[in-house]
Design brief:
- It comes from Oceanobacillus oncorhynchi.
- This protein has helices spanning about 15-20, 40-45, 70-85, 95, 110-125, 140-145, 150-165, 190, 200-225, 250-270, 275-285, 295-300, 350-365, 390-410, 460-470, and strands at about 10-15, 85-90, 125-135, 175-180, 230-240, 240-245, 305-310, 315, 325-330, 335, 340-345, 350, 370-375, 415-420, 440-445, 455.
- It is of the alpha/beta class.
- It has one domain (about 10-470): TIM Barrel (Alpha-Beta Barrel).
- The termini are close together.
- The relative contact order is 0.14.
């Protein structure tokens, strides 16, 4: 049985835009996530085809109320504490602090909310793990500047980061700059709030925006280390190793290329420079990345302290057109169906062994501590008459993944902690649904926003409590 490290940070992870609600309360500005409706139009908006930068009458926007964590956080944190959480990953909503993004002064009500939130966590000895930007940009920055395609956002982000580092320097030690930064390439409105016009060179815009985020991340690392000398500041990758469908060298090469699409971001944030394969990609695709004089020096001197990552599934790819016809649905990262693995109700490949492989791959590549900040199973839960949920399928998924994480630790991988995704039911980032549930705690709310928002414990609640109490020995 794996001996998890002493002080291992067991807990859960949520994002402001998926839990808080109160979307225009106490001075908060409109954010990009507030423009993501449910239904068929959601995917169109996520990929950058945005008709309106204001909520449209008749559309349902689940982030506007979410699960009302803004008003109920004390109740929820008490439940997390009952499970024994050592850490809780949250994000700060940029628009709660700077409603427009370019404001001269921060919004005190927004700052106070997170003061109160962190104080409540500290009351139960729960370590805050804070994401600075979790798919969240003030809409004004899209309207006025074109979001991350514009270099000016680097300065606005630096101001925002310095503001929250200064305010919470005595309350938060673990930080991450951008959530799943590689998502920019796949869902550009989600990852960088990019809106494209007809005929634009979208690849050029995406990689220029990526450069701006990478520089902003380096500036945040620099500021964080200056303001909070003992802070640990990480990056965050949507991870999952890519398997070649066969041993055909063409399949192997394609799998390597797919992985490099994601590694590119972390290579820069962790190693401090643009890798050779990226420079070739830019040449081959005639991409011209504009850099300012000190950019390369900034990237080199201000690399991250650890690698945060999400893991839900592995991926599989092929160069065979016939094989490529069998693509799994439901995941941002399109994948050939792996004949050796099952899939979730949303078509996400279930691969616990892939978790161990991915962790080893990242540690071998970067030799920096890893932090598993998302992992979980989205499933349809049935509420029993007594308010409980028998979610043995979730327990089985998590049990197998935690066991493989333990194997990675035995392999010598340095892992700081594990914050499973969605310890309480939240709005799905990809679909906007509530029926796609991840939590140990059931929230009475449906896809149309109906329900009492009452919280109740699932079977997995007591199971995870036992896992934490035994430091991973009892699965």
């Amino acid at each position: 049985m794996t001996q998890f490290p002493k002080g291992f940070l067991w807990g859960g992870a949520v994002a402001a835009n998926q839990v808080e609600g109160a979307y225009l309360e106490d001075g908060k500005g409109l954010t990009s996530v507030d423009l993501l409706p449910t239904g068929e139009k959601r995917w169109q908006v996520m990929t950058g085809k945005v008709d309106s930068l204001k909520p449209v009458e008749g559309e349902f926007y689940p982030s506007h109320e979410a699960i009302d964590f803004y008003h109920r956080y004390k109740e929820d944190i008490a439940l997390f504490a009952e499970m024994g959480f050592k850490a809780l990953r949250v994000s700060i909503s940029w628009a709660r602090i700077f409603p427009n993004g370019d404001d001269a002064e921060p919004n005190e009500a927004g700052l106070q909310f997170y003061d109160d939130l962190f104080d409540e966590m500290r009351k139960y000895d729960i370590e805050p793990v804070v994401t600075i930007a979790h798919f969240d940009v003030p809409v004004h920055l899209i309207e006025a500047y074109g979001s991350w395609r514009n270099r000016k956002l680097v300065n606005f982000f630096e101001t925002y980061a310095k503001t929250i580092f200064t305010r919470y320097q005595d309350k938060v030690k673990y930080w991450m700059t951008f959530n799943e930064i590689n998502m920019l390439l796949h869902l550009p409105f989600v990852g960088a709030r990019l809106v494209f016009d007809e005929g634009e060179n979208e690849l050029q815009i995406k990689y220029q925006a990526a450069h701006h985020q990478l520089v902003a991340s380096a500036l945040a690392v620099k500021a964080g280390h200056e303001i909070i000398p003992d802070a640990k500041i990480g990056c965050m990758l949507a991870a999952g190793t890519t398997y070649p469908y066969t041993s055909n060298p063409d399949d192997v090469a394609k799998a390597m290329e797919r992985d490099r699409e994601s590694f590119f971001f972390i290579d820069v944030q962790s190693r401090g420079h643009y890798p050779g394969y990226a420079k070739r990609f830019f040449r081959d695709n005639d991409l011209k990345i504009h850099m300012e004089e000190n950019d390369e020096e900034l990237l080199k001197n201000h690399t991250v302290d650890y690698i945060g990552f999400s893991y839900y599934s592995s991926r599989t790819t092929s160069t065979d057109p016939e094989i490529l016809k069998d693509i799994t649905d439901g995941n941002v990262f399109a994948s050939v169906a792996n004949p050796y693995l099952k899939a979730s109700e949303w078509g996400w490949t279930i691969d616990p062994k892939g978790f161990r492989i991915t962790a080893n791959q990242l540690y071998d590549r970067y030799e920096k501590p890893l932090f598993v900040v998302e992992n979980g199973l989205g499933a349809i839960d049935k509420l029993n008459a007594d308010g409980t949920v028998d979610d043995d399928y979730r327990i089985e998924y998590l049990k197998e993944h935690i066991a493989e994480m333990g194997e990675a630790i035995e392999d010598g991988v340095d892992i700081i902690g594990y914050t499973s995704w969605g310890p309480i039911d939240i709005v799905s980032a990809s679909t906007g649904e509530m029926k796609k549930r991840y939590g140990y705690i059931y929230v009475d709310r449906d896809n149309e926003g109906k329900g009492t928002l009452k919280r109740s414990k699932k079977k997995s609640f007591d199971w995870y409590k036992q896992v934490i109490a035994s430091n991973g020995e009892k699965l």
